[in-house]
UniProtKB/TrEMBL annotation:
It catalyses: coproporphyrinogen III + 2 S-adenosyl-L-methionine = protoporphyrinogen IX + 2 5'-deoxyadenosine + 2 L-methionine + 2 CO2. Keywords: 4Fe-4S, Cytoplasm, Iron, Iron-sulfur, Metal-binding, Oxidoreductase, Porphyrin biosynthesis, S-adenosyl-L-methionine. This is Coproporphyrinogen-III oxidase. It holds the Pfam family Radical_SAM. The keyword Metal-binding applies.
Amino acid sequence: MTEQLLWDPLLIQRYNKPGPRYTSYPTAVEFQPAADDLGERAAFARRDNSKALSLYIHIPFCRHVCYYCGCNKIVTKHTERAAPYLELLKKEILLKRALLSKSAVVEQLHLGGGTPTFLSDAELTDLMQFLRQHFNFSHADSADYSIEIDPRELRPDTLKVLRSLGFNRLSFGVQDLEHQVQEAVNRIQPESMIRAVMDEARALGFRSINMDLIYGLPLQTLESFDRTLDTIIEMSPDRLSIFNYAHLPERFKPQRRICADDLPGADEKLAILGHCITKLSAADYHYVGMDHFAKPDDELARAQAAGKLHRNFQGYTTHGDCDLIGFGVSSISQIGDYYLQNQVTEATWEQALHDDRLPTMKQLITSAEDKLRRTVIAELLCHLKCNFAALDEQFAIDSRQHLQSSLDELAPMVNDGLVIIDQHAIRITDKGRLLVRNACMAFDTYLQQHEQQRFSKAI
């Protein structure tokens, strides 16, 4: 894999259509309603006990609403709401822990939301002590224990507490450093606040720090975002996620507070993305794929170089071979061939747990065809190529013949020099790296069943 990214705005505009981000295949829109928790119990019963665990804890509370946000969250200033939620969360943890082998080892933990740092330092400490009491956490250097933080929601000792609890990776949203943009999206966090968090996190020894930026926000311009990039590059986070803002006010109520007339036009938005790619590449950030950049010595970049990168519901990861167990409202689990999602409202999640049921809302069991296509999509997203011989061996088929209709669908991308298909493999070219999502869509047999409006545009 080279560090070469070829920027062709006309070509990108031509292929810029809505499609999934493929944190799973089949995607979450294919999950089916679950009448009870028997399917989830079956997933645990059939689990390969030799596999390690990745735990995801969803903390849904936010003190403030960010107008761009499409996450599953509960906006409240009443911090006392956390206590009853955490008690039920512990109940869910115990219910699921009882279905796991005693020898199961946790190699990855992520607290997301919402705003996990909505919890007090004492609540965070209590939750982590509870988890460590009931799970075997790996002490390996490769173990990944991360949390999303909000710089506005940190007490004086919060970062020290998190580090003492074993967290070794932080992720937080910056989005944009321009004050007028922050005002327009209701997320005011001055540069001095971001710098203070970075400096303290470095001093405390967090081994990886990720920042999120968003392009396409109201009042953004190429010139203003360039200033944000200059500052962020100087702060030198280990990873950067540069997300496309998808304005879907009909789906996400907070976005109705954003004035559509203030959004940058399509050409300006594309120019911002192109400038991001050029500037970050010049600053020695490796383009991992799908909006993600990492320093060459970061674990993500090293895993990709070694052919060991994975992709799951947490995005790009070095621990994709773990079973993912989700806890809390709306969380998703991936256990072997099963995908499972918890109830997405606090009330229905609570009721299930009060009734001593796993709070399953939706589920899906992947078929042999799903697993084949999931492998192709993951290989393209993570490593930009997929070898037919490996597929033949893994699935005992003539994969090139089996996937012929999908390969035919890639003909326009082949003609445009974005994809190469020969007798050995499918390869994404340097010219096609920014459009790998489009190549994956050719292998998605469910996609034609859905309106494109259900997904954001590729760029």
